């Protein structure tokens, strides 16, 4: 049986198609955000889940966590170029949604 | 706070970004399949999970379940036009994967 699923495609689905990930990236595509900014945009997601997804996305190189040594410390989440390059995928999802939902 | 996430986009993510869904649609994009054909392509997914995802995708109008009254009965899963129109999303994921993974 030859496998028709490309391993790279499968790896991308593993990274991108996790619950909440698409919405988090969609929010960060608009602007760099603090933790609570993201939670405000996706209120039905728990703090623990958001923290977990942000760590995963950081380890996958999709976003960076900027820490500013102010008082109190300011922490912001920003998409990397790799993260920003996901935009065409989100645009296609938006287009499909407008046509079919 | 104005919400930057489009409700239609959110609904599409809810349908498409479930674990295994992207891979199942990718397999059916190649050809109409029987249950075991799909399982052969995605061996790490359980039968129960595949059955659950196929029901969801059928109820969302993304695929149809064709039943042929032969002996034994033959059941095949086929993408609808709505299902096939997901292809540009998969193509963008493939492109991103080839560039970034």
From TrEMBL, chains A, B:
Residues covered by the HTH hxlR-type domain: 6-101
PROSITE patterns, sorted: HTH_HXLR (PS51118)
Protein name: HxlR family transcriptional regulator
Keywords for the protein's UniProt record, in alphabetical order: DNA-binding, Transcription, Transcription regulation
Lineage, broadest ranks: Bacteria, Bacillati, Bacillota, Bacilli, Bacillales
Pfam families, per the entry: HxlR
Gene3D superfamilies: Winged helix-like DNA-binding domain superfamily/Winged helix DNA-binding domain
Species of provenance: Baia soyae
GO molecular function: DNA binding
Domain of life: Bacteria
Ion transport among keywords: no
InterPro entries reported in the protein's UniProt record: HTH_HxlR (IPR002577), WH-like_DNA-bd_sf (IPR036388), WH_DNA-bd_sf (IPR036390)
Matching PANTHER family: HTH-TYPE TRANSCRIPTIONAL REGULATOR YODB, TRANSCRIPTIONAL REGULATOR, MARR FAMILY
């Amino acid at each position: 049986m030859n496998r028709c699923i490309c391993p790279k495609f499968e790896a991308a689905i593993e990274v991108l198609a996790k619950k909440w990930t698409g919405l988090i990236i969609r929010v960060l595509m608009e602007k760099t955000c603090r933790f609570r900014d993201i939670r405000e945009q996706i209120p039905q997601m728990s703090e623990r889940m958001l923290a977990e997804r942000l760590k995963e996305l950081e380890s996958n190189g999709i976003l960076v966590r900027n820490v500013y040594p102010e008082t109190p410390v300011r922490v912001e989440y920003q998409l990397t170029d790799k993260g920003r390059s996901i935009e065409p995928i989100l645009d296609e999802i938006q287009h499909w949604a407008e046509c079919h939902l």
